[in-house]
Design the sequence.
C-alpha cells in the first residue's frame, strides 16, 4: 500500500496494516531519538506520522492497538551531564556560500576598521571540521574540565570522556597558567567504518555518519565506552587565557601545536582574497582524500589585535567566517506534499520524497517554500524554473547545502506522469480548519486560528521550552507533544507547565501510570521546572514566541526596558506611544513593534501571558556589563569624521559599554562626540545644553 494514501480512502484491512506499520516506524524512531545522536527522521516527519496514526485511529477506533503510539510519551529524558558555564562564550561562525559573500565579508571588515581596499589584511584559512566542538580548560598545565558547546554559554561536562581521547593531552608543560583550548572532536573515515562494522557484527547500533558517531561517543555516560571509540581532535581556537598565546592567529596555533595539540596541517596564511579562494579550491580538491569529513573552509583575520577591535555580533565573531562547500544535488520522485503549520500559523509545504542519498545524507523530506514556489513563480509573480510547476508524482531535483534544510530545486517535465495534477494549496488550515489567509505582499499563507489551532499551540509550546527560551531539561518537543494531547494532565499553555506537579498530586499517579514516567525522572522534571520559575527577562520575552522577535531582539528589548513591568506597561499602554518607544530602540523596526503590540492586544494571548507571569519571578535585565563605564545608560550621538576609528566601530564600542547611540541630537542626548568638520549637530547640541566632546576626549572616555 502507498504510504501516503489519504486516511479517508483506507479500507479497514488497509487501516489495520497501516497502523501496524506506523507503530513500528514510530517505535523505532522514538528509540533512535532517545538513544540520542542517531535520529532516523526529522522531527517534522515524526510529527506527521504521529498525526496520520491519530487520524486513522480516530476513523477506526476499534483498530487502536494496545501499543498505540498515541499513548506513548517520549521516553523519559536521559540522565544528564553536569553543566559547565564557559568562562568565555563559545561562538559559532557566520556562513559564506559563494565568492560574493566572501568579498562582502572582507569589505565589511575593512569598512569597520577604516582600512582602504588595498591596505594589507592577512587571513588564516583552514578546513572546517564536521565534528563536535569542545572546550578544554587547563590550570597549571593540568586538564581541569572539558565541556561541549551547548548553547554557547553553558555546555555539558564531558571531562571523563575527553580524557580518554588520545589527541587530548592531560598534562601540558610550559603552558599559560590558565588555558582554554577549543577545537573539534571528530572521527576519521577508517575508524568510523571499523566501528560500524564491529557494531554490525555484534548486533550493536550503527551510526549514520562520522559526525553522529563522534557526538554519540563523546556523550557517553560511561567513559569506558568513549575510550573504546576512536576519536580525534583538532585545536583551532581558545577561550580564557592568563597570558596571550601570540600576536596572530597563526602564531597562537603554532604555540598550541608546540604544546602538543593537533592543529590542522592545511591551515595557511593568505594575504589576499585571491589567495583565500585559491586555498579554498585546493582544500576542496583534497577533500575526498583527507580521511575525515569537512564541510567548508574557515577564514579568520590573522592579527589578534584587529580581532579584538572587531569583536562580536550576538553569536558570531566579526573577524571570522565559514565558507561552505557548494550544495549537492540528486534526482528523485516527489511522492507527496504535506502542509505543516508552524508556530506563527505559517502553512509550509513539505515535499515527501522517495528517499535519496544527497552527498552522503539520506533525504526523504525537503522544503517547497510556499505556494508560489510550487506554482513556479516568485513573490513578485516572475517565473522561476522558467515557470515549471511542481506536482506530486514528478521527478524532482533535490538540493542540499551543509546543514540547511534540503529543498526541491527543479522538476523534470519529460518524466511527468500523464495524470499528474497541479497542486491545490489549501485555503483552510489542515490542523484546525480555520481560514488560512495570505496578506497582500506576504508570500506565506497563515492559519488564522491563533491559539485555538492545536498545531500553533503545540509549536508555541515547543518554542517556549526550547534552548534560548525556558530550556527545561527533560521537557523537549516530544514530551510537549505528549502532554499536549493528554486528557488528564494536559499542557495547553505555558502556564500549565508550572501547575503540572500540583495537578498530578503528591503520588504522581497520573504521570507514572498513564504516561509511563518513573519516580526519578518525574522528580527530576519537576525540579527542572522549578529551576525556571526564576527567569531572565530576555528569555521570557523570547519564549513568548511573538512573530519577528528572535533571540537578539529579545536581548535588545530586555536591555531597553530593564524589567518585565516596564516592558508590559509600554505594550499595554496607548499603541502610538508603544510604537514610538519601540521603534526608537536601535534594531527594532515598525514590523516587529507592530507584532509586539498586536500580541499584547489579543485577549487570548494576553490571558496566556498574564497567567504565565503569575508563576514566575522575572529577573531584571542585567545592567550593561560595564555598569561602571562612564557612558553606561547614556545616549550618545556621533557627528563629523572620526580619524582613529570608523563610525561603525565607535558605535559598537559605545554600545558594548552600555550606551545607546542615536542618529540625531535631541533633549534626550547626553553626549555629542564631534569629529572633524562637525556641523549643525554640534550647534544644536550647544543650544540644547548637551555636552560636546572631541575625538581625543572620546578615546579617553572609553580608555582606548
Ligand atoms: O572546524 C571547525 N568546525 C571550526 C569551528 C573551526 C574554527 O576555526 C572555528 C569554529 C567555530 C568557532 N572557530 C570559531 C571561532
Sequence:
Amino acid at each position: 500500500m502507498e504510504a501516503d494514501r489519504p486516511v479517508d480512502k483506507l479500507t479497514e484491512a488497509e487501516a489495520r496494516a497501516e497502523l501496524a506499520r506506523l507503530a513500528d516506524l514510530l517505535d523505532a524512531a522514538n528509540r533512535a531519538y532517545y538513544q540520542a545522536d542517531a535520529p532516523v527522521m526529522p522531527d517534522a516527519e515524526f510529527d506527521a506520522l504521529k498525526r496520520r496514526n491519530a487520524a486513522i485511529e480516530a476513523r477506526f477506533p476499534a483498530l487502536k492497538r494496545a501499543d498505540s503510539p498515541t499513548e506513548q510519551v517520549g521516553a523519559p529524558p536521559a540522565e544528564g551531564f553536569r553543566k559547565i558555564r564557559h568562562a568565555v562564550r563559545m561562538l559559532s561562525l557566520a556562513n559564506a556560500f559563494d565568492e560574493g559573500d566572501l568579498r562582502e565579508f572582507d569589505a565589511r571588515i575593512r569598512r569597520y576598521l577604516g582600512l582602504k581596499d588595498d591596505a594589507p589584511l592577512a587571513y588564516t584559512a583552514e578546513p572546517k571540521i564536521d565534528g563536535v566542538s569542545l572546550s578544554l580548560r587547563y590550570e597549571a598545565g593540568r586538564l581541569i574540565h572539558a565541556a561541549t558547546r551547548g548553547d554557547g554559554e553553558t555546555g555539558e561536562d564531558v571531562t571523563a570522556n575527553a580524557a580518554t581521547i588520545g589527541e587530548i593531552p592531560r598534562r601540558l608543560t610550559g603552558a599559560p597558567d590558565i588555558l582554554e583550548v577549543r577545537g573539534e572532536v571528530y572521527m576519521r573515515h577508517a575508524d568510523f567504518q571499523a566501528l560500524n562494522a564491529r557494531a554490525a557484527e555484534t548486533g550493536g547500533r550503527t551510526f549514520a555518519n562520522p559526525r553522529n558517531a563522534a557526538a554519540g561517543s563523546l556523550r557517553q555516560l560511561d567513559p569506558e565506552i568513549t575510550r573504546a571509540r576512536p576519536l580525534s581532535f583538532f585545536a583551532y581556537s581558545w577561550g580564557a587565557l592568563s597570558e596571550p598565546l601570540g600576536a596572530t592567529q597563526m602564531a597562537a596555533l603554532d604555540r598550541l601545536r608546540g604544546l602538543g595539540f593537533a592543529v590542522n596541517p592545511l591551515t595557511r596564511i593568505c594575504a589576499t582574497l585571491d589567495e583565500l579562494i585559491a586555498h579554498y579550491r585546493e582544500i576542496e580538491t583534497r577533500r575526498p582524500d583527507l580521511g575525515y569529513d569537512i564541510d567548508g573552509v574557515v577564514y579568520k583575520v590573522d592579527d589578534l589585535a584587529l580581532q579584538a577591535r572587531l569583536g562580536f555580533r550576538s553569536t558570531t565573531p566579526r573577524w571570522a567566517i565559514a565558507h561552505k562547500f557548494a550544495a549537492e544535488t540528486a534526482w528523485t520522485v516527489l511522492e507527496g506534499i504535506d502542509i505543516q503549520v508552524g508556530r506563527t500559523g505559517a502553512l509550509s509545504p513539505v515535499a515527501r520524497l522517495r528517499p535519496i542519498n544527497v552527498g552522503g545524507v539520506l533525504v526523504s523530506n525537503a522544503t517547497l517554500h510556499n505556494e508560489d514556489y510550487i506554482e513556479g513563480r516568485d513573490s513578485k509573480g516572475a517565473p522561476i524554473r522558467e515557470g515549471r510547476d511542481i506536482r506530486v508524482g514528478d521527478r524532482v531535483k533535490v538540493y542540499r547545502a551543509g546543514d540547511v534544510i534540503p529543498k526541491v530545486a527543479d522538476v523534470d517535465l519529460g518524466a511527468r506522469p500523464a495524470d499528474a495534477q497541479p497542486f491545490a494549496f489549501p485555503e483552510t488550515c489542515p490542523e484546525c480548519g480555520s481560514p488560512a489567509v495570505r496578506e497582500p505582499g506576504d508570500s506565506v499563507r497563515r492559519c488564522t486560528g491563533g491559539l485555538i489551532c492545536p498545531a500553533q499551540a503545540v509549536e508555541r509550546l515547543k518554542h517556549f521550552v526550547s534552548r534560548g527560551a525556558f530550556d527545561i531539561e527533560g521537557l523537549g518537543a516530544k514530551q510537549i507533544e505528549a502532554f499536549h494531547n493528554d486528557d488528564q494532565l494536559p499542557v495547553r499553555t505555558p502556564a500549565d507547565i508550572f501547575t503540572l506537579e500540583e495537578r498530578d498530586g503528591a503520588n504522581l499517579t497520573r504521570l507514572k501510570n498513564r504516561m509511563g514516567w518513573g519516580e526519578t525522572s518525574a522528580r527530576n522534571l519537576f525540579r527542572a521546572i522549578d529551576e525556571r520559575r526564576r527567569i531572565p527577562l530576555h528569555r521570557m520575552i523570547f519564549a513568548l514566541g511573538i512573530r519577528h522577535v528572535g533571540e537578539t531582539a529579545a536581548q535588545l528589548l530586555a536591555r531597553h526596558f530593564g524589567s518585565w513591568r516596564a516592558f508590559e506597561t509600554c505594550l499595554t499602554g496607548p499603541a502610538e506611544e508603544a510604537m514610538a518607544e519601540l521603534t526608537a530602540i536601535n534594531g527594532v523596526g515598525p514590523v516587529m513593534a507592530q507584532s509586539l503590540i498586536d500580541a499584547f492586544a489579543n485577549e487570548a494571548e494576553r490571558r496566556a501571558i498574564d497567567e504565565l507571569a503569575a508563576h514566575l519571578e522575572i529577573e531584571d535585565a542585567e545592567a550593561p556589563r560595564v555598569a561602571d563605564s562612564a557612558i553606561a545608560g547614556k545616549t550618545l550621538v556621533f557627528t563629523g569624521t572620526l580619524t582613529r576609528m570608523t563610525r561603525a566601530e565607535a558605535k559598537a564600542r559605545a554600545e558594548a559599554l552600555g550606551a545607546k547611540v542615536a542618529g540625531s541630537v535631541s533633549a534626550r542626548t547626553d553626549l555629542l562626540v564631534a569629529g572633524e568638520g562637525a556641523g549643525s549637530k554640534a550647534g544644536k547640541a550647544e543650544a540644547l545644553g548637551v555636552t560636546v566632546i572631541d575625538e581625543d576626549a572620546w578615546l579617553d572616555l572609553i580608555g582606548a
Remarks:
- The longest strand covers residues 328-341.
- The chain has five domains: 1-14+327-452, 89-324, 453-532, 536-619, 635-702.
